[in-house]
Amino acid sequence: MTKSPFIGRNYLKPPENERVSIVVLDFKKMYACWLPGLRHTLYFDEEPQTEELKRIREIVLLEVFSMDGKYLIELHPEDFERFETAYALFSTYGGELFFYRRKEGRRMKKYFDFKPKQKAQPHIRKYKLGEALSNF
Description:
Elements: E1 20-35, E2 40-44, E3 54-66, E4 69-75, H1 77-93, E5 96-104, E6 107-115, H2 129-134
Antiparallel strand pairs: 1-2, 1-3, 1-5, 3-4, 5-6
């Protein structure tokens, strides 16, 4: 069994409804498993065939950069659909991508929000032709 390359990394878990601006570095489909002896989640590219691992599930592991560092976000298929819609808008229009969590029932659901780029409003001063010519 190979060791997970992600042991010791931080997971991004902001408080409920707090929006955190993120930059997506990478995402890939993996298998997540809990190893009770290590008390860590291990990630594999292929489904592991061992009895030691518990809660084997297929996830998308999202690697993001936030204001204070590099984090991981584990996404289930329904969470990944919400991410795809926000990321498609982000890649089309530019702007900012936000991550937040909301409690629904007993679980915290992961959501992504997109804020488009605001167009800069140039300051244009209107002149009368006489004023412009008097300055010369």
